[in-house]
Amino acid sequence: MSQEKQLVHELKLALHARGLKYRDAARALALSEASIKRLFSRGGFTLERLATLCALADVELTELAERVQRRAPQRLRLTRAQEQEIVDDPRLFLVAWLVLNRWSVRDILASFTLEERELQRCLIRLDRFRLIELQPGNRVRLRARGDVVWQSGGPLQRHVQDLLLREFLAGDFAVRGAALHVHGTIFSAAGLAQVQRLLQRTLRDCQALAEQDEAQPFAERHGAAILLAVRPWHYSGFRRYAR
Description:
There is one protein chain. By secondary structure, this protein is mainly α. The chain has 3 domains: 3-70, lambda repressor-like DNA-binding domains (434 Repressor (Amino-terminal Domain), Orthogonal Bundle), CATH 1.10.260; 76-142, Arc Repressor Mutant, subunit A; 171-237. The protein is built from 11 helices and 4 strands; from the N terminus they run αααααβααααβββαα. It has helices spanning 3-17, 22-29, 33-42, 47-57, 61-70, 80-88, 90-100, 105-111, 116-128, 155-169, 189-213; strands at residues 76-77, 132-135, 139-142, 148-149. The strands form 2 sheets. A two-stranded parallel sheet has the order 1-4. It has a two-stranded antiparallel ribbon with strand order 2-3. A hairpin with a 3-residue loop joins strand 2 (132-135) and strand 3 (139-142). Helix 1 (3-17) packs parallel to helix 4 and helix 7 packs across helix 9 (116-128). The radius of gyration is 21 Å and the shape is globular.
């Protein structure tokens, strides 16, 4: 994605975060809603129009540029031994899960029965893995901002599939705030590759919204899990009917 498209994408997220629609942007620029949609999809914003919409979203243009920079891909791959060490220690796995999901040390201590010294030991180990940067005052900075590449078929992937994913999918998706969509179809190899790119963009959008939500009081936020997945697959229960 070009820098211009990334900047426009961040602007769209900023407008959305304030509950603003295309019609609001159209009114601010004295354009039709159709023209605004074309600008967002094809680009071509002038600096003046960008500045006007930034003012509408109550965000500085320089801040949008910083958000683009912060979201630049930073991939981190743990070794298999490091993954196994995290899986073998339930407390370390808990802390790794929480800090990757942007929990602060204060909120972890307030929500879980971990002693401060015990939590610090876990953070030191994660710092040693270069998963985080442990700063003075036990402040945590994510080195990869959650973009951690797991070993294919490794300890963490198996652990999440066997325990967390099994429990997640067994839950009730009829409750408020939940959604589950399963769609089976037929794709070419090129189509599957394009779907994978779409899922990556969707994940980045979700991460951006999570970062924006950090401004909300902790008590007003709720734990959630997002599953984005695609793979070549045929249901085994249909095999006996296949020719």
